[in-house]
Structures are given as C-alpha cells and as structure tokens.
Amino acid sequence: MVAYANSHSFSYVPPVVREQRKERKLLDKLENKGVIKPSEPYLCRVCGRKFYTNEKLVNHFRQIHESEHKKRLSQIESARGKRRVNLVAKYAMKMEKYKNAARDILTPRVGCGLADELKRAGFWVQTVSDRPEAADIALRNHMIDMMDRRRADCLVLVSDDSDFVGVIKEARERCLKTVVVGDISDGALKRTADVGFSWKEILMGKAKKEAVSVMGRWKDREILKRLEWTYDPEAERKKYEFYDEIDEDIVRDIEGTESGNDAQEDDVRGWWELDSDSDISSAELSR
C-alpha cells in the first residue's frame, strides 16, 4: 500500500479538526476555572497517573514522557552496530506505548498527523514536489510499474479524480480486480471500476458485507474466462501439423513391423520340415 502527497496535504488541517481543537481549548479553560468538572479523571496511558484537568495531563506528558522519548531516540541514533540493535529491541515496547498515547494526548505541531496515521495503517508514504499533478503522476507511474511487474492481483484506488480512469481501464484489461473508494457517489472512477464504495458505506460496514458477493462475482468471471473458447488459427495450424507428423511416424512403424513379419513368415516351417544335419553336410560337399 502506498500514498503520494505534497507537503501542503500533510500540513493542511480540515475544518472539522479545527472546530474540534477550538472546542478542546474552550473546555480546558472552563476546567481550569473550575466551571466544568470531567465525569472521569484523565488517565495517562504511559504511567497510569490520573489528572482532573486535560491541561495538567498534557503538561505532565510533555515534561516527563516526551523528554524520555527524545532521550531514547538520541541514544539509538548515536549507537552503532550491535549496541544499536540491542537498544532498539530494548525500547521497542516503550516507544510504541508512547506513540499510541501521544496520538490522543498531544496536538500535532504541523497539520493533523495524516502522515503518521497512514504509516500506522501500513502505508508507504511518499512526499512529492508541490508542482501541479505531481502526486497524480507519481501514483499513476507506480500503479503501471506494479502492473508491469505483475506484483498485484487487485488494485484499490482511494480517489475521486477522473484522471485515473485510464489506469483503471488498463488494469481491467490486464485482468486485475479494481476497487475505488471516494466521496462522490457516482463518479467516473466508480463507473469504470469493478466495485466502488464511499467512505460512509465503509464506516457503516456495507463494504465488508458486500465483500463476499463481490469475491463470488470475480470467481465466476474467472471460471467463465477459462471455459471460453477462442479460435487461434496459428495455434490450430501448429496443432494439426504436430498430429500429422505423429500419424506419419505411426504409419512408418506399422509398415516396418509388417515387412519384418512377412520375412519371418517365409522362414516359418514345421519342425519336421527343418533341414537335417546330413542335408546340411551334403549341401556343403556339393559346393
């Protein structure tokens, strides 16, 4: 799985996220003044300490756990060889625990943490230049390269850009399964692909429910393609030439066998008709 985007995409903050951050700041102010009290204390997911205001939790996390995380990273970066491997193994669980907690507690300094979320989901994230269509060109080239190397059986594209219609058509011509995920309900991409889903349908679980029927349709299509007969004149000509050569060889073998049998039949006589020793000696004397 791969994702291409320019630096602006990773620094962009959607309006929904901005509103959530404003609401969070307002709640923090009210909690600090004592106007609002949380129903449950805020829990630090690293050390387990409890706080009655979100601001105290954030300060605690930055002062203690963030500084500890930076120290671990500096130790790993300065180490070499076997010591580096040992440090990575030693701090792996602690660093993973810190990242999971920081994602919910700390606000990203740049953007909304899109790149980190994509990496956590298993995507290979690549930042391209800010030129127009740079991300589209890079993604299109990557998909074509994967198809040329035959490294994929199914192409899943998360986009509403109709510029990718050509790539989807090429993937279908190469017998790849194609799935498109986007916000537009009836876009050109979804009409071209085998299956199309919206993000709302995925969140509702519709995509998961339809996965079984979609796989069944793909299997049926593959079976029909295998059963489909197509006439290839060149292949038929080679096949019949091969059979003609086999027939000629069989005829030769049969003719050779029959001639050998005829020669044997000329010499076949009863035991009483065989030449005796006296006949053989008299024949030799006459010579």
From TrEMBL:
Recorded GO MF terms: RNA nuclease activity; zinc ion binding
Keyword set, alphabetical order: Metal-binding, Zinc, Zinc-finger
Gene3D superfamilies attached to this UniProt entry: 5'-nuclease
InterPro entries named among the record's database cross-references: NYN (IPR021139), Znf_C2H2_sf (IPR036236), Znf_C2H2_type (IPR013087)
Ranges for region Disordered: 253-287
Every C2H2-type domain range: 42-70
Database matches in SUPFAM superfamilies: beta-beta-alpha zinc fingers
PANTHER family in the record: C2H2-TYPE DOMAIN-CONTAINING PROTEIN (PTHR35744), OS04G0464600 PROTEIN (PTHR35744:SF4)
Stated name of the protein: C2H2-type domain-containing protein
Source organism (scientific name): Punica granatum
